[in-house]
Structures
1.
Amino acid sequence: MSQEHLCVASVPLFAHLDIEEQRNINQLVTHQVFEKGKQIMTPDGDPQLVVIAHGSMKMYQLSASGREQLLRVVGPGGYEGENLLLDARNENLFGEALEKTEACLLAYEDFQQLLLTSPPLSLKLLKMNAGKMMQIERQTQFLTMEKVEERLVTYLLNICKATESTQVDIPMKMKELASFLGTTPETLSRKWKWLEHEELIQRKGNKINVLDKEALEGYL
DNA sequence: CCATTAATTGTCG
DNA sequence: CGACAATTAATGG
């Protein structure tokens, strides 16, 4: 009983539905715990909707050279795989647990059936996907930039804008940020040093203090 | 403590 | 800039 973590009720995607529907969905859903580092989604796995209940999952692609490109991190309440369910398979997309993570899995057929029988759910999915789309567009803007420092500066300024502060706390390991920005930890480390040397920022571990936002914008 | 992983630094192509 | 190696720092048992 206490084991009923009911991700269905706690997840935005399903939260607004009435009890009847939630119970229905909950019956179709499978709960599974993934240890840190375990693959949650692979290109050749069964198509399914993955909803994160606890923990987090990183989504990434592998480049031709085998380097991984971090796309995003899905936290509690987030979901992934809806495009697989809509027949858009990505042959190079992986999801991996960043920590011990509990997920709720919904099979392809079941989810499709749900969409057919529940217009509210379909609508909610569309709305939430619109939000996801914006993040993806933001990620795309990185990929179109040639220089690493442009991507890094864009990343920094985005967070500044979002938090309305010049104090930026990098929410991931440098290794992962490097992957997110499409570069290597070595290059990233050198870019930090350069920005610091130019006295545009100040850094202590994952804490960045933006000293000259205007000058940074000059690099875009 | 030791072992493992992350971050940094140097050098080269 | 990325790849690789070597070194140092940080983390976790």
Note: Chain A has a mean pLDDT of 90.
2.
Amino acid sequence: MSLEDPEDKGENKSRRAMPARGTEKAGTGAKPTLKTIAELTGLAVTTVSRALADAPQIALETRLRVRQVAEEIGYLPDRAAQRLRTGRTNVISLVLDPHEEILGYATSMINGLTEALRGTAYHLVITPHFLNTPQIDPVRHIMRNRMADGIIFTRTEPSDERVKLLMENNFPFICHGRTELATAHPFVDYDNYGFAYQAARKLIAAGAKKLSIILPPDRFTFAHHMRHGFMTAVREEGVGFEIATGVTLDSKSDDIRDYVYKRMGEPERPDGYICGGEVSALAVMASAYDRGLELGSDVHLVAKQTSGLFDQIRPRVETIYEDLTEAGLLMGRLLLKHIAGRAPVAELQALQTV
Amino acid sequence: MSLEDPEDKGENKSRRAMPARGTEKAGTGAKPTLKTIAELTGLAVTTVSRALADAPQIALETRLRVRQVAEEIGYLPDRAAQRLRTGRTNVISLVLDPHEEILGYATSMINGLTEALRGTAYHLVITPHFLNTPQIDPVRHIMRNRMADGIIFTRTEPSDERVKLLMENNFPFICHGRTELATAHPFVDYDNYGFAYQAARKLIAAGAKKLSIILPPDRFTFAHHMRHGFMTAVREEGVGFEIATGVTLDSKSDDIRDYVYKRMGEPERPDGYICGGEVSALAVMASAYDRGLELGSDVHLVAKQTSGLFDQIRPRVETIYEDLTEAGLLMGRLLLKHIAGRAPVAELQALQTV
DNA sequence: ACCCGCATTTATATCGTTATAAATCCCGAT
DNA sequence: ATCGGGATTTATAACGATATAAATGCGGGT
């Protein structure tokens, strides 16, 4: 195609992209629009539009004919035009905390979201931080400028400002994790209480005498859930415990390792660790290894698993699975339901069990 | 904001989204457009548009005034309108092979891309597979329907159809990996030849007598590069070698482990493994562990590292780093350059060294 | 005063779609 | 024959931005 008119130099100026739009040849070159179909069928543009929308006021025969022609010429509606006219964007924004425990977390969720959106008119746009305005809340930005029809975000806080803002403005959203606000809102969450509770019991069953848990940063709701589940279990069993101080699941993995390594050398050291993430679990394993402690006898470990990673880790580690792909799938479906029409909030909430 | 009129219940009916658009109060409610600015400044819409575009024909004073007002009222151009009018989408599509070795690979790259696009008008859209048309080439779809201004894809093949198609149509793109086509095209690649070569030499230096390499599927160009680097090294050194058969880096990790485990029990087993990915390296480690072989003496391993994962893996493994975040950053920048205007192809190519 | 040219601003048309209101057509009832 | 009314189709305007061409204002040369 670019070899067609090697002599025509004057036109090269508008080389921006694609064959110039003026091509008269109505063949297959130009992108088909409603107008194209209108001309082919002898109908008006409006009629074609409504026919494709399957409006009952358009004769069935006409609808079928239009649809057939549209199919034949490979018509696809121009999203920009639709968006401009209707105000709907057909976009779902996934807002990712830049400090995300990125490995696996986001990816699994994206896979699920993708699956939920497949076959719909919706696109997924990843919005990690924002443009050149470093600290302006991306959620506010998306909402105010209608960059999306719905927002998804993660790492919810007990009194999350994003939730408040979106609720106030009745803007469709769903978050991963819960708040502690009085008014109900859509969410998908994992039973982190159950996770920590079960993890503690597993450690105790394995013979651990003093448990330690590495928690997420305290500002996140799920940190509270985990702490609560952990505390409940250790109190029920009357076993020794501590909560890692100075490091969280968000800490650099080297820092976590350093902390655990140091702790493993001190008196009254814990012999049972609970890790809410894969990286921190590996850090605990590395610490034990570097201390010459044997996993499964000297030290015990229960980790949260969100990928297949631990299937290849030796020695084998006890894990509890959180299915983030499923979470993404759920969030996608619930958000679409939310956008589509009114659904009772209760229907837009899901709690994944351990 | 929602506390302002707590009594106004009647309005709740139009609950769909946001305050109804009819709000006459010109305050902060309605989304500002060029028209808003035009009214505020007493200028024509056209003038405002050009002023914001910093057109030299508009008086400097006017430009400043317009910009100031725009800033004050928080004006942001409507992307749909811009897109409809100019044909530019301000979108970059990252097309992801659904069989992607997703863990870390895509995520790192996305981080880099995000960084490259930050502060520009471009959005990143992830396109994993497509809509309800399972097997229609997503690249063709994006190009034909102008869903993006540029395309990024990975896992390039020697005679890649996507590259051909996009080149024929002069559509901006950049791919991760190279082809073996005669005509040059933009790409970012990692020196996988160098990786395999260096890895082999490291193993030999460590005392390995028979090397084995697990390669990517043969259809990808970088599989050839790796094989070539590997072969060069083993021939130079005259050491024993083999190439893993029946499994590739894309195989399920359990299958890789089973294969290696089996091989480790056979006569003339390799004692030095090269893995082009983290998961496969873990599988090799697990196999050795399950066989009771000690890493670093009985068996040696050199792995490609694309994340911080291996910093926490014990025993420590020799790795060679491929910076996929940097690759994403490069790809983003080069693609923007490509889109912006003409840049010699040579300037749109980058090879990351080992 | 007049006209010219330069700097600056403005009017108009358009991108592709859809909401609204108006216009046809056909048929049976008067 | 005329009219009303349901079924179907169409014309017009608008979403918000920008490309193009036209218009305005102003100072200087004659």
Note: Residues 208 and 292 of chain B are 18 Å apart (CA to CA).
